[in-house]
Amino acid sequence: MRICMRFSFTMLLFASLFVRVESVLAQNGIDESKYYGKSWAVVIGINRYTGFPELRYAVNDAVAIEARLKRMGFQVTMLLDEQATKAQILNVFQQQLAPQIGANDRLVVFYAGHGAAGILPSGEEAGFLIPVDAKAEINGRPLSLAGGRVEIGNDYLNFVQKTNVLSVEEIRNISDTVAAKHIFYIIDGCYSGFLDPAVYAHFQPSRTSGSGQKQTPLAETSRSLILESGDTQAPQMAIPSQQANADEYLTLLTSRETVQVLTAGSSGEQVFEKSGHGIFTYYLLRALDGAADLNKDCVVRAGELGTYLKEIVPKNSNFSQTPLFNRISGEGEFLFIPPICHPIMPTEMQPPTLDTAWENSDAYRGTKSLPYKAPSQLAVDEQNALYVLDSERQRILKFDAVGKLISERFDQAASQFLNADWQPYALTIGNSNDIWVLYSSKENGGKIIVYDTDGQALANWSGTASPLSACVGEEGASVPFPTKGLLALDVENNLFLINQANGMMMKCEQNGHLLHQWGQATQDKLLKSLNTYKTVAEAAGFVVDLFGYVYVADAGGNGIKKFFDEDWIKTSWPTVKGDKPSFFNSPRGVAVDNMLFVYVADTNNCRMKKYTNSGEKLMTMWGKKGTKSGEFNQPRAVVVNRDGTLIYVADTGNKRIQRFVVER
């Protein structure tokens, strides 16, 4: 339970009114360098407290936010668990970032962890955050965070010093010492003390800057955290009447300084959790992807974030949690540009270059002693080593970055646990270079073994290296893995599986806890017909992008389906069988690179295609049926390396792996 009063509520009584992402892709994208210099972020997540109750999902929240912000071009400093001491947090701002951040830059501060509102003698609240090394007592008295409020007493500064909490005053110092024109605090917790105007009036001492020069009293500086009264949205400005002048308005908004704050709720509220995240961060992530782009202009304003979250979070938390948003100072507006709205470089519109040198490697056709019969599954680790599952040979081979065979030991490791009835069926690789292999047996379903990059079995969530056979659902019930299925891992190492027999999907936490099940849940012919565009007819390819969106190459449905957990995402991919450029014919492979571009193996059309991440634009396609270099015969799998510069295609009908190079 994250203070204040955070708890898991997996079966919400109110159905999610998820606002689907339907960003309008600007014709040439939006270049945010017109509005900002550099973009900075500090992301803090603390699970493992020593003096306070441990949390479950704060680190997940931080990791997911880091991925979003990096993809948006932010330079991110992340502090997790034992790194997030008070001294280190202040050092990051005052010593590391303050000298680097310029007056035209922007700064996001995201915090997920314990916090509370201290009660002043006047009865007002002063919010504070709790770093990992905060003291759980003061003067021999336990520091209780029950209800998210703590009695401070008459000496606030003495309380802060003895407990080592991070106070409102110290948070305000960040705004006063950092030169960024836009600062946005996002606090995943219930801290109304950060938003109470009266609190800031209590603390008005002068300070010296890092250069030793005395600053004016805080109440007189542009960076004082004195909240404005009245409307929390941006001050009214003269908005250009013509759509063509929208850029002029954005320039005006971003030219003016501002400090803004968004918190998960008021102190004392219950903080809900959803799918491995605090429910506030869960929807914040969707918001940053474009769901909060209320006027569909490819720009998410801080005010739009506040409006969106204040509507959707209460509806999905039994109306027990209401995010708070306010402007601390200034007249500007913090802007985010969703990744889908970033400009597309001309080189991304060109077909990749065939790596002809690769054709001389072991990996191209397999070795002389072990040539491929049907290479059908691929994975690449961060050293660009390639893992190939040959479905007919029922073996997994590992090749180094230049295609030399370096390991066949996966079979040896599997034989320690499984007899000959079990055969490797699917594989994927995690963010920590752990390789997950699904083994199939007609009689006994599916089992997973986790390996290191050398093919040695690793301890999994069971605490041993023994094969996994199920996730754990509500009240300890086992949810078995499919006999024939595909698997993927997200950046948090959550496991995703899809059952190829019925299209059902599952998402399991790193510890094996079942988070979601969704998919084709009915056999009623009418309902199946009505929901065809939302369900998977024949799953043949399966991948999760760095933001947690799931993509399925639906060979039977002749298209690509996209989901976020149980939510189907409307996309622009066709579901029409054909050989025209916009159509598919039994696509069986799908991959997403670090730029969120989607690659599809259009199997029966014997070609590869590259799209923007919801199919809005076919960027390029290459290949035709044939046996020459660059041609294909029934390509069944595609994978992209970590930096998006190498594309591997399982050209299954030609019994080879082709490699292509993306110029970036």
TrEMBL record:
Entry-linked Gene3D superfamilies: 3.40.50.1460, TolB, C-terminal domain
Key words, A-Z: Repeat, Signal
Descriptive protein name: Polysaccharide deacetylase
Pfam families documented for this protein: NHL (PF01436), Peptidase_C14 (PF00656)
GO biological process: proteolysis
Sequence ranges assigned to domain Caspase family p20 in this UniProt record: 41-115
NHL repeat feature ranges: 584-614, 623-663
Superkingdom per UniProt: Bacteria
InterPro entries with a match to the protein in the record: 6-blade_b-propeller_TolB-like, Caspase-like_dom_sf, NHL_repeat, Pept_C14_caspase, Pept_C14_p20, TRIM-NHL_E3_ligases
Recorded GO MF terms: cysteine-type endopeptidase activity; zinc ion binding
Keyword Repeat tagged: yes
PROSITE patterns with a match to the protein in the record: CASPASE_P20 (PS50208), NHL (PS51125)
Signal sequence bounds: 1-26
